[in-house]
Amino acid sequence: MIKITNLEKIYRTEEVETVALNKLSFEVKEGEFVAVMGPSGCGKSTLLNILGLLDDPDAGSFLFNGIEVAKFNERKRADLRKHNIGFVFQSFNLIDELTVFENVELPLIYTGVKTAERKRIVEEALDKMQIMHRRNHYPQQLSGGQQQRVAVARAVVNNPKLILADEPTGNLDSSNGNEVMQLLTDLNEQGTTIVMVTHSEHDARYSHRVIRMLDGQTVMENLMA
Amino acid sequence: MWKNYLIISFRNLTKNKSFSIINIAGLSIGMTATMLILLWVYNEYSWDKSYAKYDQVYHVMCNRNFNGQTTTGPDMMYPLPEAAKSAIPEIEHAAIASFGETTLLSHDDKRLNKNTITVSPEFLDIFNYEFIEGNAAAVKDPGAIILTESTAKALYGKTNIYNQPILINNGRTAFIKGVIKDVPQNSTLQFEAIIPFNTSSPQIKESENDWTNCGNRVFFSIRKGADIPKLESSILALVRARSKSDNPTTKGSIILHPMKKWRLYEEFRDGRNTGGRIQYVKLFTWIAIIILVIACVNFMNLSTARSEKRAKEIGIRKTLGSERKQLLSQFLVESLLLSIIAFLFAGLLVILIVPYFSTVLHETILIPYQKPFMWLGITSLVLVTGLMAGSYPAMYLSGFNPIKVLKGNAQPGKQALLPRKMLVTLQFIASIILITATLIIYQQLKYVMNREIGYDRDNLVMVNSSPDTDKHFSAFKNELLQSGAVAAVSRTSSPITTLLGYTSGIQWKGAPENGNLVIGFLFADEDFSKTLKAMMVEGRDFRNGDSAAVIFNKEAIKLMGIESPVGKTITWAGQERTIVGVIDNMIFTSPYEAASPIMVSYTKDWSGSTMIRLNKGTEIKKAISGIEDIYKKYSAAYPFEMKFSDKEFDLKFSNEKMIGSLSIVFSGLAIFVCCLGLFGLVSFSIEKRTKEIGIRKVLGASVRHLLIIMSKEFLVLVAIAFLVAIPISWMAMNKWLENFSYRTNINLGVFILVGILTLVITIITVSLNAAKTALSNPVKSLRSE
Questions:
Q1: Is 0.90 surpassed by the pTM of this model?
Q2: Does residue A57 sit at the B interface (CB-CB below 8 Å)?
Q3: CB-closest option in B8, B315, B318 to A97
Q4: How many angstroms from the chain centroid is the CA of residue A117?
Q5: Cβ–Cβ gap B4/A110 under 8 Å
Q6: pLDDT digit string, tens, across residues A107-143
Q7: pLDDT tens digit sequence for B435-482
Q8: Residue A176 is part of a domain; what is its CATH number?
Q9: What number is the ipTM of this complex?
Q10: For residue B314, what are the domain limits?
């Protein structure tokens, strides 16, 4: 599903040049659950941003489902993103002014799903995440675990092929963290490809494979039992 | 999608109440001001449009050279319309009309002085009025009169009065052959009754061949497509061919002044139609735009200032697949929603304010609800405001990098700091210009109002003379003087705030050959100078026993070049007259113009007004009541009408007073909207600096020091605005002042005052916000971080 080859990303300021990704290459197959680990500043988040088409690489190739997307313009990237990729963030990133239902509904609005259909899909997603009873609440009225469940519901509502999770349990206690990891595992078992950036060895154990990064490069890959 | 935009817009509005209130208040005030000004502008442009031949009617004007200056005037000769219509095929209809006169109309015991015009038969072919009774043929009947609806109702209590007799000036009886709807308020031509010229009278017969004396107005309706400059030349050629001798008209030129320019382009300078009221229409249209832009800039500034609060939402939306154009749409929907809400308040305010606005303007301003373009205009205003206010924030906010904003690495507000500062500075530049202009308009008004006008206009009452008061004038005057309230009485041919006319026919010893001195004149009788408290420079006042005496003002004597004038003679209107005195220059007409030459000629035959000087300290109400009783005793058949000279003189400033009032209201609104924006910006700035302020307080900073720190960045902007605005104001207002011969100089004091005013307003606005933070417990502000 994902094949990156010699991917490079360099951040430049007037005085400093920071190499975030240094000829990074790897592949993620459809249905895989891959964890990306490494110390702070190793390039994990940059990688996730590029995979999520939120950022573009300076050099190298990025094939998504066999299509070269590295040089896509903003409109094409947005289009590909909204149909294929779901995001789960450490800090949930829900819109405070929207209710649980409306937050989850948002990706469907951008993909142009009709109102009645949207209602059905959102309710299904909320039900699946066991958050239906909170549908009319605002994010601030929910616990961290509940907020992350809403974020996961929003990530999967469009039935994306790929979910990118950036430290999804970072702001959660262990019980809520485990719950979220279980949700991701379930999704993966249902066929969704997952790439997760994490610092937690515990979370990484839920994945099939761990890519360890240092200074913008892959230093090791482990298959999980 | 749109529903989602609206939901989030509403929630944002209710969540950020202070932001919403500031924005809605700013936009509402801006829109209110804009709509009021545009209503006034619309009203100005609507003048004379009720006439069917709006595009075809022309007023004949003539450029004449008097005292070395070209003067443009409407006075034309009686036979011109008929002769021009016969000779020039492009002229469809031609009519002559008097300038309007006060005519006493009586029916039974009802007597009313009304403004009438005397017209020739084709007048109603040019100007259409809706007849309630009778028809336009009435104007062809010399024994007829046409009344307006109000006049008919005032005299008869009804309008079905066809063929009823009516007494004119207590003399002849005319018959009502028509009642028309009142002349629209927005018509340049105003009257309360139409009287046809009596073409069989000897005076009119004589006028029919008089191509020299000009005393009426001439109107043409001209066929479409006619070459106007060519017509002007043809008319002049006709006048030259028919006049038997050279005179100022034959030496001048003709201007056909189109009806569509009567209201707004009424001024002529050096023989050219230069403009007039249009300058105020343009000026206030710009002010409307400026106020609206100031209000929109507030929205832009506040929206970008609070961008950090919106950044996360934008990041999320982009991550979820929103394209930039969708975000642009979302923010534009928000600003449009705000614009609609602001409009609802503004519309309500306009409806409530319009009556007061009309009072200030001395005009009836109506909201044209039934005109589709008004609704189109409103829609445009809402759209333009929403798009103008929302475009920059939409561009700015939608351009955020989702990665940065979601990571919290970006401080989006900072990127907009320079444009925001520039916009605030621009707002203040506009406001300072408006304040300066207002102060200078008032300074000029005060300067002219305090001008020495050559007589004392306080306690001077002008009462209409009547044939009966003239008949018993000695007794009438004596009784007035004996009442104890009156110090002096004199008759004049017209109220002292106007002249009777102008003459170029004065001859005197030593007058230059081919001289063309034009002097304004009026008639008066004894005690003229005493009543007016006019200063005699030389000689004496008129007194009983004078017969052919004249008094000139200083300017006239200067232009005539007569040495030791008292006792010398002049010839005028076929009579030799002795100069008995010279008075100081008096301002009869425009107080903005330099003093002009005036001749006061003694007469006992021609009176229009009785000037009554009240004793100082007299109780005015009682005095007037006493004068009215005496008037009625001698002149029961005529209505008593009086005017105070000072109030009448003040009417000459009505235009400038109106401009002054408008300026003060709208510049006040502009600065208020500006301060609203500043208030909002300061609150955002302080919010960002809460931690810094806490630390400074902990380290020992005083409240005053903190206020200075917080005010500094805004005071610098205001100072820059002041430095930019002052030269612009100075240049613009100097140009405006050039419109007046008698004008004030712009002095430094105005700018110092504006500077202090702006400084105080800014400090108050900033302090209102900053003081709370400066006085708060630092622990609290540090904890909030």
A1: no
A2: no
A3: B8
A4: 25
A5: no
A6: 888 888 898 999 999 999 999 888 899 999 999 899 8
A7: 888 888 888 888 888 888 888 888 999 998 888 898 899 999 999 999
A8: 3.40.50.300
A9: 0.76
A10: 1-46+273-415
- Angle of helix B654-688 versus helix B278-305 axis, rounded to 10: 10
Token pair for B394: 């939409």
Residues in chain B: 785
* HEC per residue, A18-44: EEEEEEEEEEECCCCEEEEECCCCCCH
Tell me the C-alpha distance between B657 and B280, whole Å: 12
Distance CA(B632)–CA(B590), nearest Å, equals: 33
Is any Cβ of chain A less than 8 angstroms from the Cβ of B319? yes
B-chain CB neighbours of A110 within 8 Å are 1, 317, 320-322, 326
Q: Is residue A139 part of a domain?
A: yes
Per CB-CB distance under 8 Å, the chain B contacts of A43 are none
> What is the rounded distance in angstroms from the CA atom of residue A113 to the CA atom of residue A95?
20
Among chain B residues, the shortest Cα distance to A82 is held by B321
* Residue B727 and residue B646 in one domain: no
The answer to whether residues B174 and B40 belong to one domain is no
Identity of the residue in A102, A110, A111 whose CB atom sits nearest the CB atom of B7: A102
Give the number of domains in chain A. Answer: 1
CB within 8 Å: A106 and B4: yes
Q: At B514, is the secondary structure helix, strand, or coil?
A: coil
Chain A 143-202, residues with CB within 8 Å of chain B CB atoms: 154
Pull the structure tokens for residue A2: 């994902």
Determine, yes or no, domain membership for A4: no
In a domain, B61, yes or no: no
Show the tokens assigned to A148. Answer: 């992350």
Task: Please state the domain count of chain B.
Answer: 4
Question: Residue B591: what residue type?
Answer: P
Residue owning tokens 């039900």: A127
B161 in the same domain as B120: yes
Taking an 8 Å cut-off on Cβ atoms, the answer to whether B321 and A75 are in contact is: no
**B491 belongs to a structural domain:** yes
Interface check for B149 against chain A (CB to CB < 8 A): the answer is no
Q: How many Å lie between the alpha carbon of A109 and the closest alpha carbon of chain B?
A: 6
**Residue span of the structural domain in which A126 resides:** 31-57+72-223
